Amino acid sequence: MATTQAPLTTAAAPDTAxxxxxxxxxxxxxxxxxxxxxxxxxxxxxxxxPDVWNHMHEFFHDGRHFLGIAxx
Length: 72
Prior knowledge:
The chain is mostly helical. The chain has a domain at 26-66. The protein has helices at residues 26-43, 54-66. Helix 1 (26-43) crosses helix 2 (54-66). The chain is elongated and about 90 Å long.
C-alpha cells in the first residue's frame, strides 16, 4: 500500500498577525502640547512659556516676514 502526501504549495500563508499598537509615553504628549501651544501663541505675538523659549517666537516671527505675511 502506497502512502500519499499532500501536494507542496509555494504560496506563502497570509499574514494574519495583528499589528501591535504604538505606545507613546505621556511625557511626549506633554512636549508636543507645549510646542503646539508655543507655536500657536507665537503666531499671534504672545509668549506663554518662559522667556527662555522666546527664540521660538522670534523664529516664527521672522518666518512670517520671510513668507511675506505682515504682522506689524
